[in-house]
Amino acid sequence: MTEPQPLLSAAELRLTFPGRRGAPDARAVDGVDLDIAPGEIVALVGESGCGKTSLARTLLGLERPTGGRVTFAGAPLSYTASALKTYRKRVQLVLQDPSGSLNPRHTVYDAVAEGLRIHRYPGDEREAVAGALARAGLRPPERFFLRYPHELSGGQRQRVVIAGALVLEPELIVADEPVASLDASVRGEILALLLRLREEMGLSALVVTHDLGLAWNIADRVAVMYLGRIVETGTVEEVLTSPRHPYTRALLSVLPEATGDPLVLAGEPPDPSRIPPGCRFHVRCQVLASGEAERAGVADACRSRDLPPLSGGGGAQVACHWARARHSSGEAIPTS
Amino acid sequence: MTLLQVRDLTVTYDGGARAVRGVDLTLAAGQKLGVAGESGCGKSTLALALLRLLPASAKVTGEVLLGGEDVLTMKWGRVRAVRWAGASIVFQGAMHSLNAVHRVGDQIAEPILLHKRATREGARRKVAELLEHVGLPAARAASYPHELSGGQRQRVMIAMALACDPELIVADEPTTALDVMIQAQILGLISRLVAEQDLGLVMISHDLAVLADTCDRLAVMYAGRVVEEGPAAQVYADALHPYGKALSGSFPTIGDPASRFAPRGLPGDPPDPAALPPGCTFHPRCPVALDVCARDDQELRPAGAGRRAACVRVGRTGAAEDVRARVRGQGREPEH
Fold first, then answer.
1. A175 and A47: one domain?
2. ipTM of the complex model
């Protein structure tokens, strides 16, 4: 099977923030491969501090990676000012809090037209703004032109932010928690909009979220991130209905609607400046703690041997000694 | 024993916003009641009204009976005694509710010193005990809020709420800004404390799925009223009110093919509490509204064992289909 060429691709991507006052460096992104195909929606999930926002920022060219590279449409990303400006026309960011990302003193029209003005759009500005608002579900668009953010509901504001991202007709949007600040009933409407845009414009999306339900609702593939690395990836069906990594299993087990006993991990994700040796998850791993890994004969590897980064595209992969040992021994993996 | 009884509570803010419009609730000791609803539905106003924490300009009517005493008419001295010792609130956003320049141990000790007339040494011992109880080392008493993670701060808030051994805890969005794993830890902690100490819990959240998983009973609010009430699992799985249905439908179930690539929401926005629509306040957004809904207000009515709903389709005859059939058959609206 030949994979289509990815639209956006990260290879061995690293982003390290220097430690202050002699503290060790924080490895926010610690060797990530990730591909997004044209028209594909990929969900990047993980807890706060796992590096998902740092990864998104690096993919957008907002941070210069300390290692590895970002490739867009087959060409490596160049970090000159003009190259980045062109890049940001094709890849747009949608931020999480629409109230914070809109200027309260700009009208809806100005907010959406800003991108066009920055990029000196040669066509009819009014028409482009109206088109983007209509596509984002604000109809009739003219009624919204002169409104200010405070006159709109939360859902409408998020639509304005999305319209601002769409107006330059990007090929990919990176949405960081696009619905986290919205009410449940509005959330569904915004997610349906992202799906419709993919259908109508072939738009690809990387959705950064901590919400696994969101991934089930709209994504084709999911990548689970833990402490700077992707620890499990595959299609949404594979990863969310038969998770193999103990971390993914724990995340799914604590959802309110999950059946079976919740596997509540103690403590919080460790500090990216002190990534544990061996498997980075081993200190919190319930499989290692229960002695299960010992019985599978991988406990030593868990404590001492780091796992290679997973490749960016394609099928289901997991960075776990235990899951790999079970897989290679041909044992069926329970789906609970 | 009835711990809390709310009778026909209304709150009207200065400016005419009718935030709470006739709410009745009952809670027994050891019971957990969830109040669900979206931004602006009046759920936080309800929480504040329970302990008379609303601004003086807000007009409050009805009764809030806490252990048989009406909080709304008691003398101020008595209100101060009831706060903390009778009932306490865990507010949303622990970062903003804790004082940034005081050690958390001192903040927990403050109500103990004031209400229990404890000695400094006695208060210090109680603080250590409370911290252990919420899963924090007693040494954390010397920390400042910024030195703690979000989950740890929320644990401090819970320790503070328990400081004077109240009978009732009101938790307003206790886990909203937290990651799923930390959320699971905090919810587990709250459930354990309620069971151990036979407390009453009113938990307020926009997250119906979390409430259904944690609470015994559930009340769904819309535009200042309870529109549906009943045993938590039943309300979540099989809501009778169209709003309850839409709300529970907007939480996807992972693994459910019906919600794959099909995010569900509810078009429109909640009404402005200062300008409510006539008739049933939900009718402009209701997918199954009848003509009569625009005219007649709908009161909560019995809807099966232990359940109530405020919808014309949940009538004395019970069956919604029946109402529709009558409308069609007679070519006019049904009589009430």
1. yes
2. 0.84
